[in-house]
């Protein structure tokens, strides 16, 4: 087989001296050698984490050549004994620093790196340029007890939406059932304190800088949300920016931000809306007992859901539509009073015992906005909810509502809820209606939550456009009764509404000093013509009322 020469001198159209040709060839080879050395240096610097392993391998080879195999056996015995003591005394740190790191290295090399190019090509994530292929670069793999978190760099010409669409293909290609795609860093910047805080902040500024071309993939090896989450401990003092309500799919505690926001909970029947409400009330229980939080509850279903925890509520209505409207209007009045106090002083209300955080809990908001038979009461409720949702977040008057149907014609104030939680839904389109357009493409498969996954939901976390999958804790009836008995709300004196007497309206006169009967707007008009009414007025005698 004849191969083409390295330099085809016959292609030169002009005669050139041989020394010049060899000089140009030598310079070209030296240039390519310099490029290779630079690339090798960049590779070595980029993979600095492998330096200790390479050094240990070289040292082991040198020791074996000099002393044989017995030093390696001695080191192995010592390391095994030290690992056993470490595992016995500090099991959590041993798993975190040793076991999980070994699992990360193993899965990076055997599961992901071995078939990376094949999976990327078959999933359509490889870009073609200048006759070659540009493959997404795998940067790191970090394993936990249930998940694998991959950090990769996208090729030029891609955006995170492409990876959202390919998430299910990636999951099944790597042997899992769930793959979550995040376009931003999942872990916040740590808060540094101490003597070296200034230096560590400078390091964090480089480590946690914004990287638009990086994408985080989370593969769920073992779904921890298939099991019921036990009730979490009650915080001694509730942190309204981080209330523990359940577990995330990476086994981290899901902390919910309630301060200065309204919450809409959507889910089909028996999919766990009560788990969200009672988990929230359990996290607020210490504040309820101290008076820092006041919960006003409305249960349009006649108390079937909230009546069991009646001692937790400062105000509670479940059987009178008019009283429900009065409660919401009282919340509006409390909001107006705080506006007068905080105007020009603060933009966000800080809860205190004297001015507590008021949380209005509505179990089924659709019954008040769409299915209420009394149109006048329904109009009062709609107006009061509109004022609360548009103005009450910063004033410490919050609304937490649940619904089965998130459609706009059913929940007309749906767009006024900043925070939304999607439990199991019956229709595919309800996901985007509840969480926003494109939420399902970004991974919120709420319509695929099985009936066994009660309490599993998709929520939007602060600073992340992709919804997170969590499972809220389940509180049995006995636990709710014990919670209500342990953390009862202090009594709240409710002033009786003052009924202003309305002045009687002057009746119309026909010009003769006699009053003419005219029907009020709430009465049905008599079926008599005006001429006959005037005749009746003229036939009255002795100045008495018309007959």
What does this structure look like?
- The chain is an alpha/beta fold and 547 residues long.
- The protein is elongated and about 100 Å long.
- The longest helix has 29 residues, at 18-46.
- Strands 8-7-16-15-14-9-13-12-10-11 form a 10-stranded mixed β-sheet. Strands 3-4-6-5 form a 4-stranded antiparallel β-sheet.
- It is built from 16 helices and 16 strands.
Helix percent reads 25-40%
* Molecular shape: elongated
User: Mean of residue pLDDT?
Assistant: 84
Low-confidence stretches: 495-505, 507-511, 515-527, 538-547
Strand order, sheet with most strands: 8-7-16-15-14-9-13-12-10-11
Note the beta-strand portion.
5-15%
Summary, kept brief:
Residues 524-540 have a biased composition (Low complexity). The chain contains 16 helices and 16 strands.
